[in-house]
Amino acid sequence: MSDLGKGRGTRSTTGGRPALRKGPAQRGLTDVSLDRVVEGDCIELLRGLPAGSVDLVFADPPYNLQLGGELLRPNNSRVDGVEDAWDRFDDFASYDRFTRDWLAAARDALSDDGSLWVIGSYHNIFRVGAILQDLGFWILNDVIWRKSNPMPNFRGKRFTNAHETLIWAAKSKDSRYVFNYESMKALNDDLQMRSDWTLPLCTGGERLKDAEGRKVHATQKPEALLWRVLLAASNPGQLVVDPFFGSGTTGAVAKRLGRRWLGFEREADYAAAARKRIARVQPLGPEELETIRPRRAEPRIPFGWLVERGLIEPGTQLFDPSRRWTAKVRADGSLISSEHRGSIHQVGAAVQGAPACNGWTFWHLDVEGRAVPIDLLRQKLRAEMH
Amino acid sequence: MSDLGKGRGTRSTTGGRPALRKGPAQRGLTDVSLDRVVEGDCIELLRGLPAGSVDLVFADPPYNLQLGGELLRPNNSRVDGVEDAWDRFDDFASYDRFTRDWLAAARDALSDDGSLWVIGSYHNIFRVGAILQDLGFWILNDVIWRKSNPMPNFRGKRFTNAHETLIWAAKSKDSRYVFNYESMKALNDDLQMRSDWTLPLCTGGERLKDAEGRKVHATQKPEALLWRVLLAASNPGQLVVDPFFGSGTTGAVAKRLGRRWLGFEREADYAAAARKRIARVQPLGPEELETIRPRRAEPRIPFGWLVERGLIEPGTQLFDPSRRWTAKVRADGSLISSEHRGSIHQVGAAVQGAPACNGWTFWHLDVEGRAVPIDLLRQKLRAEMH
DNA sequence: ACCCAGTTTGAATCTGCAC
DNA sequence: AGTGCAGATTCAAACTGGG
Question: Is the CB of B72 under 7 A from strand C?
């Protein structure tokens, strides 16, 4: 694991400074303490992590369903079921305290460019979202998990509750968070991935059962959901922490996708089931893990290099797709049109009267009667340079 | 209007005691004060309503978007964002105060069995939802408006923000709120209506424009959305109040559906446009309240979903029927061949040197020695997703 | 009347590195 | 922290105009 935090284990959206990014191992976490389920209170355990050591948090906290009174105080004592408005306020207040505590601890553990996902339902997600914002998290998206096979509303008193909500938030407004745009686009047939994801509930062979055939965990999340989350917002080698580990879906998918992971779980039974489950997971090899490389991450090639390398001759006439404007290439890689001179981008913007222009895709040259974007020459040069 | 609050104007879900339910006229509101747009501050106007006089509140409050500078599309055209003064707040605390004030006033105005809808985005909806709960409202559903034609994310930095969230809440836990289960089921091809509604944005002839062709209101809601809300949660003759009336969609649909209505609006321009709009609306006759059934399209299944769902493993070798070309599946659903990488369609086209290719029928995989087109897996998945 | 190609537009927290 | 600039980035629908 000597390459933790290097290579693919870095942000893919910028391409800059990959060697400078620290992996978990450089941030006070050793191999032996990673890829494990730790039993205990998630708030204490989160507080025990080195500040800034975590790249991604995925959290599936208790939903505070006001049905069975399964509500826990920060000290893990159980709150009794309550009826009237005063007690309900007490109820929410205690849920809010708990939420604030674990979110604040998670925020401290996150690196500056790390991000956090929380999943919830209308019972708790509004409180979680508001507290997130109060703590300085910067919401990037709310994402809807649209269940293709939800439980119907048996009594016919409400709409079928057919979705859950995920919030994706960066540590701060200025964060340079990881978003693997191209991978998400690839996953969605070359269309931008939207904020609504249609996925089925976790059923069938994926659902963990005990010896008597009872489900091990009441709210086991489908692996497809975590697949999308981890692929979108982390890179191989980065550290993913799940403070409410449960049946270990986050760990199973993290292992498969080559991410480092840590799971916190209070209940020994869940922890044991998760360990057993994850031990069976086969990690993908580097080739399968390789995804579409974002153009932003490709090495920068100045236009002048094409001239220098003889891929384009000084004096060559360039034109835009509509052939309304032309410009000539000069020896230093600058362009000159009838009224403007400067870089391919500057002249492209100037002739159009636009505020900006990507000269690589705007300017074309004539190759045997066909208009070819100069970006094609750049790709050729890149291939030559490996 | 002597039958206000009787007959159809009663809850349909219980069937009990219809004659005892009061209509607006019995609760201190006269005909002359109804079905009107009132200009002024919504909090004061809500406070001025007799307690318990309102059957349904629909609210589309400012979202507090906190937009930065200007945003350009890839073609350099400028996005016409929400820059109106009414959407600007100093900070979360002042937005929260505003929200608490209008929600508290709305709650007092609501009858005990009345309910409230609020629409918002991730910028504000979590704060609204938490405050709702703090005030004693009882959330019945959160409903997702899934936009069929959302604005893309132009910079590729996030998921396409393709939905908005509505919260539907009763005045209290014990409320006997109106829910027209059968109407909703009928609207949905005799299936229970789910909590996610797919509807297009308000465009075309429905969108109000001024003399210069500019949109009258930055955020006009589609009538189809209000149609569903009013049909679900109110009965003819009941009173619907919209404290952020804007372009008057709530009033237009309420009039058409035979509901009484009241709209509060601070801006005189909006109020005038709404009055003009609603004057043109023809109320439906009792028999016409039958609705058009929405058409259901076959769901699109991107190839990546097969990978995500475990129907095809990353690393799987694909080949064409003639077995001249092969390619490998990667974790994000893209393919890689010896010379090309991209979507199933792109790589299929590239290896053949063809301009286009249907990857679904071109690529096959080996199942027990037999070549099976990947389209078969798609059909399998589609069947699982209805 | 229809078709096709090009243009416009929508509640948007929308760049990142070098100097 | 501020400035300059390379260069990356869009989907569904409705509308417009010419043939």
Answer: no
